[in-house]
Structures are given as C-alpha cells and as structure tokens.
Amino acid sequence: MAKQDESPGGVPNSASTLPAPRPEGPKLDPVYYTWSNTFSILMGRHVTGNRDVSLERKYFEEMDALKADSFCKRCETNRDYLMQYSPVVKFLKDEVAKLGGDLNAKNVHCRMCSTEQGGGFHVDHGILLCANKFRNRGHQEDTMAHEMVHAWDYLKWKVDDNNLRHQACLEIRASTLSGECRFTREFFTKNQWSITEQLQKCVRRRATLSLMARPGVQDNEHASKIVNEVWDSCFNDTRPFDEIYR
Asked: What is the DSSP string of 150-209?
C-alpha cells in the first residue's frame, strides 16, 4: 500500500490536496497522542530491534508538557496527604523539627523534572519532588522519606558537600531507611529477585549510582570503592529510627 501524506494532526491527505497550514499552538488529543506515539515506539523496537531513545525522550517530554499542571497538582495533593497520614513521613517530619528544622508545603516543592531522579534535597531550598516521575502515592512516599533522611542528616551532622565519603554515607542511610529498598518494591518494580541480602544489594546499587553523578567520581569502580569504605558504619546507623523501619 502506498504511504499517504499526513497532516500535523495525523489525518491522511489525498495526493491531490495540499496539506493545510500548520495551526499555531495546536491542541493535541492526549488519548490519541498517547496511543499513536506508544504504538510508534513499540513498532520501532519490533522492526529494528533497537531502542529509539530520541523518539522516547521526545514523546515523554511532550507528554510531560501537556500534563504538567495535573502532575504537579497530584504531587501536591499526595504530599499534603502523606505529611498528615504517612507514619514514616510524619515521624521524620517530627524528628527534623526536634533539630530545629521545619518541613512543610512551602519548602517541599513539586516540580517537573527532565532527569530520571525522583527528587532532591538542598540545605537552603528544601526538598524537590519530581511530580512527573512518580508511579503512585507509595513511590512518592518513599522519595519523600529518602529526602527527609537527608534533611535530618544535614541538621544533625556537619556534612561536607565536597567530601565523597560523606555523600556516600548520606545515600546509604537514605536508601536504607526510606523503605525504597524493601523487598516488595525491588521485586515488583525493579525485577530484583534476590532473596539473600536483598536490602544490602539494593542500597549498594542506589548509593553507587547516586555517587557516580557527582563531580570527582571517575567511574563505577571508583564509586563502589567509596561506598565500601563507609559501608559498615553508615548502613548500621539507623538514627533517628531505633531500627530499619520498613
């Protein structure tokens, strides 16, 4: 079958008809757009056997732009709910307050992110939650807990942002205590099916990946070495919890 030309909206044009001028600021139908682009990505993989990274990136970036308001509103609604009802988030919020900090809706920000991170912490600006990266409320809860452990650590200890051992320790503690490495999450979302020392393997993996994104870290081997140097003391330090909560 001969391939038909398509207009910007995806509607076929006959060979004798010139395409209509491209309208300014077209409004896309999210349902059609999602199905059409997902189908193209899947077909591209099937036919070529290669992952079309540029097509996927463009698709997700455009979908994020279309849904930015709804993503952020959902994130803010879940943030407020978790601060009121989540045991781990409420506990960490109270522990931060004991050290003179105050985590609230004004310094826990929901924003759109272009990287793969789920969130971040800055001592001067608070917590960043990447609204377009959360699968569900539970995923956001883990991310909030992770960043709140960072907040507690910065208030409790004298943290040097340029000290890679300090940064490795922060990531080990946050991944251990937040719940993001618990067995069920690793099993169902990361296809990590190891039974023995599953928690330790997950924490090591996450801490190493986080460290590799920092200036001064040469490669995976270098990052792993730093993580190993501080592993025993940082993994076994469960403060402010009495033990690993979940």
From this structure: HHHHHHHS---TT-HHHHHHHHHHHHHHSSTTSHHHHHHHS-----TTHHHHHHHHHHHH
**Residue 40 identity:** S
Please tell me the predicted confidence (pLDDT) of residue 23: 44
Q: Collapsing DSSP states into helix, strand and coil, what is residue 236?
A: coil
> What secondary structure does DSSP assign to 217-230, as a single string?
--SHHHHHHHHHHH
Pair 9, 16: CB distance under 8 Å: no
pTM of the model: 0.72
The mean per-residue pLDDT over the stretch 45-66 comes to 60
Instruction: With beta carbons less than 8 A apart as the criterion, state whether 180 and 141 touch.
Output: no
Confidence at 57, pLDDT banded by 50, 70, 90: low
Task: Tell me if 201 sits within 8 A of 194, measured CB to CB.
Answer: yes
Give catalytic residues, as residue numbers. Answer: 147
Q: How far apart are CA 59 and CA 43, in angstroms?
A: 14
- pLDDT tens digits, residue range 116-129? 788 999 999 999 99
**Closest C-alpha among 98, 145, 154, 153 to residue 124:** 154
Cα–Cα distances in angstroms (integers) from residue 101 to residues 16, 92, 94, 123, 154, in the given order: 69, 11, 9, 10, 10
H/E stretch holding 89 reads helix 87-98
Report pLDDT for 51: 52
Instruction: Look at residue 192 and tell me whether its pLDDT is greater than 60.
Output: no
Q: Could you count the other beta carbons within 10 Å of the beta carbon of residue 198?
A: 16
Alpha-carbon gap, residue 191 to 43, rounded angstroms: 24
